[in-house]
Automatic annotation (TrEMBL):
Keyword field contains Membrane: yes
Protein source organism: Sulfurimonas diazotrophicus
InterPro entries on file: ComEC_N, Competence_DNA_uptake
Residues in coiled coil: none
Protein topology in the membrane: Multi-pass membrane protein
Locations listed in the record: Cell membrane
Domain ComEC/Rec2-related protein: 136-394
Keyword Transmembrane: yes
Protein name, entry field: ComEC/Rec2 family competence protein
TM annotation in the entry: 149-171, 192-210, 230-250, 257-276, 282-304, 316-339, 359-375, 382-399
Domain of life of the source: Bacteria
Keywords: Cell membrane, Membrane, Transmembrane, Transmembrane helix
Length: 400
């Protein structure tokens, strides 16, 4: 794995040296996000771009620039001050758009198709992001963060898991009919998993491989490999193997907040299932959602620093999202997605009293250490939810 990581890192370094060979460069990229910003009486556009080599970077543009989100562009960049670490993690560059390609990428065109089914702009942008991973407008992203439901819109293992169950169920009935007549010797689980995995891989490539989707897809493959061989499925080893493998192949993931949040969420799910094994289905379903919310809260506060009176309701919204997601997918598939506008507008219109919760990086670091110690230490494992509850009470006290 170390050799793979070094080879991948070497490839990234060669791409970095090509980009910074001269003080400036002209490269092809895709505009992933574009929004207006105002500072010191000056209004301008901020562009988030992704180069063909996979580097993410920001640049500013004149306020009059038309909407280029989803378009391929050729840009001129100043690269004389760019170091390798910022090249991997994302950087800001002085530059200008030199040319624009004639058509938007398929992902953004599909997002337009979903959004066109809605009369309400925020609802359309929300469902476009939910199904095609197109960026949300900054104001809507802020509202969702205050409600504590940003994770429901960022396509991750949660969504991939729901899709895999849906696909497996839909494919099972025609497969069984064909199997009983033409190939009864075949292993149904292996065949259905292979077809499901191929479809989900195509979907992940269509989404341009977001870090959380990469982690989830790798976990799914490793999980089925263990299951097919009668090995333990819900193991921390499988999570570690998936995370290390992905970082070895894509070193940029070391700097991806979304990737590490996704890994942390799965870690806490496994920790819950190992702590409260053999409990009833209702306790497991409700308890796991409450547990993950409390465990992720210190991390979310340390990184994003926002808490509101409605934030705890994200536990309820997450549970309701499980039946809502396939229903929304079905309605959009038949062109009737607009019927969901009313509940979405109602949720977005809820009065939110949000405050900035200052925690400092000490909370993130100490919570990470305690979370890792919870695996070998039963005492720390049982202490963890009480500490998380204390953080929750402190956040509620600040917003009350």
């Amino acid at each position: 794995m170390t050799v793979v990581f070094l080879l991948s890192l070497g490839g990234e370094y060669r791409a970095y040296k090509r980009l910074t060979r001269y003080d400036d460069a002209v490269i092809s990229a895709t505009v992933e996000q574009q929004y207006e910003k105002r500072k010191a009486e000056r209004t301008y556009q901020v562009l988030k771009l992704r180069s063909e080599a996979g580097a993410s970077f920001y640049m500013t543009a004149p306020a009059a620039l038309r909407n280029l989100q989803g378009y391929g562009v050729r840009v001129w960049l100043r690269t004389d001050r760019l170091d390798f670490r910022h090249y991997l993690s994302g950087f800001f560059a002085h530059g200008a758009v030199d040319a624009v390609m004639p058509q938007r990428q398929w992902k953004f065109r599909a997002g337009e198709w979903f959004a066109a089914q809605h009369d309400e702009g925020r609802s359309g942008a929300l469902f476009a992001a939910l199904f095609t991973a197109t960026p949300l407008p900054p104001a809507l992203r802020t509202s969702l963060g205050q409600l504590g439901i940003s994770h429901l819109l960022a396509i991750s293992g949660f969504h991939l898991g729901l899709l895999s169950v849906l696909l497996f169920t839909l494919l099972r009935f025609p497969y069984r009919a064909l199997q009983s007549r033409w190939f009864p010797w075949r292993n149904a689980h292996r065949d259905l998993f292979a077809v499901t995995a191929i479809i989900l891989l195509g979907y992940a490539l269509f989404l341009q491989l977001p870090p959380s989707v990469l982690r989830a897809f790798a976990m799914m493959l490793i999980g089925f490999f263990l299951y097919d061989r009668g090995l333990r499925l819900l193991s921390f080893q499988s999570l570690m193997i998936a995370a290390v493998l992905l970082i070895a192949l894509w070193p940029r993931l070391l700097f991806s907040v979304g990737f590490w949040l996704s890994v942390a969420g799965v870690y806490y799910i496994f920790l819950f299932l190992h702590t409260f094994a053999d409990r009833g289905k209702i306790f497991t379903f409700v308890g796991m959602h409450v547990w993950v919310y409390l465990m992720m809260l210190p991390i979310a506060l340390a990184i994003f620093g926002t808490f509101s009176t409605l934030h705890p309701l994200s536990v309820l919204w997450t549970m309701l999202f499980i039946p809502f997601y396939p229903l929304a997918l079905l309605l959009h598939a038949v062109g009737a997605g607009g019927v969901l506008d009313a509940p979405i507008v109602w949720i977005l219109g809820l009065p939110v009293s949000a405050v900035r919760v200052e925690t400092g990086w000490w909370l993130l670091i100490s919570w990470g250490v305690l979370s890792l110690l919870a695996l070998p230490s039963k005492t720390v494992k049982m202490l963890l939810p009480f500490l998380a509850a204390a953080v929750f009470v402190g956040a509620v006290y600040q917003v009350a």
